[in-house]
Amino acid sequence: MSYIVIVRAFKPGDEISCKELIRNSVMSSLGATFRGMLFKEITFQLIILLSAIMFIFFGMPLTICLVVIPIVVILIYVGTYISFAVKQAEINEEVTNIPRLYMSNAFSCFWVAEAFQPYLMTRHPKEVHYTVITEQQYCQANMGVSLQAKKIVGTIGLSKSHRLDKCAWIKRLCVHKQYQRKGIAACLLNTAVQFAIEAGYSCANVVASEYTEGGRELCLKRGFELEQMYHKPILGSYITILMYELTYQIKPSEDDYLSQI
């Protein structure tokens, strides 16, 4: 029995599966982000500040003042969760409008990775070897998978940058946790980069947070380079996440050209 994953262009009807997959992918980093927030300097500052206020202004014993620790932890979690919920709402709106945002012109596209497997799986996906191919390779191979179940297990999108001239943004790269480490993310990323090359872009950029190390490492292995690092606000300017902007240089930039003259 052959198990294959086909990377193909998005088509109507994929919205529900894409929303669920991307939502789970986004929320999967909630725990890591929250744990990272607990060790930020602002967390300790809040604990000290609130304890001091209770001790000095309200005259409470120091042992009672320590109750601020779980309070601050809860506040950090609530704030982190709200930021994730807001992000998820934005993503749902984006996925709903994939046909308009990604599929309505020749300079953007959205792809899904679709797994073909038996209707009655007797083995866990992690234990199965999947052959990952593009839609073009699938058509050329003339493989018969019509009697197998289909499941969308990965997504990626590419759109034109409104900030950088002749540059594309790669977004929504995610793979179902049961299908990771099988080459699916690499194939999705290669497909998006190849599209950017054929569309005439000079570079393709992707952004990853400090808590998505796996995706960042994959991009670096595929030829992306670190462009810049910046802090993204979570709760105003008090709590932030370190973000990495990576770039894949397709054509020499103007600065590179001038330096060679």
Task: Give a structural overview.
With 261 residues, the protein is α+β, with helices and mostly antiparallel strands. It contains 10 helices and 8 strands. Strand 7 and strand 8 form a beta hairpin. The longest helix is centred in the N-terminal third of the chain and has 29 residues, at 68-96. It is elongated, with a radius of gyration of 22 Å. The model is unreliable at 254-261 (pLDDT under 50).
Shape: elongated
| CATH level 1 name | Alpha Beta
- Computed over alpha carbons, the radius of gyration is 22 Å
Strand content: 25-35%
How many domains? The number is 1
Q: Quick check: average pLDDT?
A: 85
Q: State the CATH architecture.
A: 3-Layer(aba) Sandwich
- Assign the CATH topology: Aminopeptidase
| Tally of helical segments | 10
Task: Pick out the low-confidence regions.
Answer: 254-261
Helix and strand run: EHHHHHHEEHEEHEHEEH
The biggest sheet, with number of strands, parallel, antiparallel or mixed sense and barrel status, is:
8 strands, mixed
Going by helix content, strand content and strand pairing, the class is alpha+beta
Spatial ordering of strands, largest sheet: 3-1-2-4-5-6-8-7
Helix content: 40-55%
Give me the secondary-structure topology.
Elements: E1 4-9, H1 15-27, H2 30-38, H3 41-57, H4 62-65, H5 68-96, H6 98-101, E2 109-117, E3 131-134, H7 135-141, E4 149-160, E5 167-175, H8 184-198, E6 203-209, H9 213-221, E7 225-235, E8 239-249, H10 254-260
Parallel strand pairs: 1-3, 5-6
Antiparallel strand pairs: 1-2, 2-4, 4-5, 6-8, 7-8
Helix pairs in contact: 1-5, 2-5, 3-5
GO molecular function: N-acetyltransferase activity
Protein name: N-acetyltransferase domain-containing protein
InterPro entries: Acyl_CoA_acyltransferase (IPR016181), GNAT_dom (IPR000182), NAT_camello-type (IPR050769)
